[in-house]
Design a protein that fits this description.
By secondary structure, this protein is an all-alpha fold. Helix content is 71%, strand content 0%. The model has no long low-confidence stretch (mean pLDDT 86).
Length: 282
């Protein structure tokens, strides 16, 4: 029986995808195995199972670290990540809708400026950013870091939401406008419910970006009680000036990565729809 060419291509694509996935998951397996085993068992490699005694002691040590407890770091990161996700989401959705539906002077130039801001590297503004935050007494405050992450996320969120709104049919909005609905009412009662996949995509991407950030946190947060989860990873596991307990450090790393993974798993269905939805007109 002759095998269809499309079937062969499908098998090849799946084999390539599974191979790439395997190479991606191997480093995580190394970190995870190191996190649930004593350091003495992984010293010759995590793949050595001649002695295997899994334990959660490393997670407990990382969570209740004497000087830099990860429990406090996770709370601090949530305090920063949650508003830094929803503030730019709200502003970016409003701005994206305006760019998608309204015409106003120099609209294209403003939108081009927004797009160009996405190419600005963080390192190029580190010094002036710190000076500005210091001037307004926002250094070593959660508010300062929230404002920076919100401003940094706005350009790509505006672009993303504008593209998604442009792909939505305008007939429903026009019908609502004929019935006397205001633009704002149309936006939050009609447009936003239809844009749930895009909103979920923004939440996942922006939250992951803020949660995993270390650069901005190192610039603006320096007191020990205020340090975020990513900052505390630098100190957790240290048992001496030249020695690290890699098992405790691995356990701390797993804890930190669990939160964004859970967000992605919960919103995965909408995230995938949102990522492809604005590229296809409905």
């Amino acid at each position: 029986m002759k095998i269809k060419k499309s079937t062969v291509m499908t098998v090849i694509v799946h084999l390539i995808a599974w191979t790439v996935a395997l190479f991606w998951i191997l480093p995580f397996m190394g970190v995870f195995m190191a996190s649930i085993r004593p350091y003495s068992e992984i010293i010759h490699g995590w793949w050595d199972f001649s002695s295997f005694h899994p334990t959660f002691d490393n997670f407990i040590k990382a969570w209740n670290h004497r000087d830099f407890p990860l429990s406090r770091g996770v709370i601090n990161s949530l305090i920063v990540a949650v508003p830094s996700t929803f503030i730019p989401l709200l502003v970016g959705a409003l701005a994206g809708y305006a760019f998608a539906r309204f015409s106003f002077p120099i609209k294209n130039y403003i939108f081009l400026t927004v797009v160009l801001l996405m190419s600005l590297p963080q390192q190029s503004i580190a010094v002036p950013l710190y000076q500005m935050m210091s001037k307004f007494h926002l250094v070593d405050t959660f508010l300062g870091l929230i404002l920076v992450h919100s401003a940094w996320g706005l350009p790509w969120i505006i672009l993303f939401m504008r593209n998604f709104f442009s792909a939505l049919p305008v007939e429903i909005e026009e019908a609502a406008r004929v019935d006397g609905a205001s633009y704002f009412k149309i936006f939050y009662k009609i447009v936003l419910p239809m844009s749930l996949p895009a909103l979920a995509s923004v939440i996942v991407l922006q939250f992951m970006w803020v949660w995993n950030d270390l650069f901005m946190a190192l610039i603006l947060i320096y007191s020990d009680p205020m340090k975020l989860a990513t900052q505390r990873l630098i100190y957790i596991g240290k048992t001496g000036y030249y020695h690290l307990d890699w098992s405790v450090l691995s356990a701390a790393s797993v804890i930190v990565m669990i939160v964004p993974i859970l967000i992605f798993v919960l919103l995965q269905k909408y995230y995938i729809k949102g990522m492809v939805g604005w590229t296809i007109k409905g």
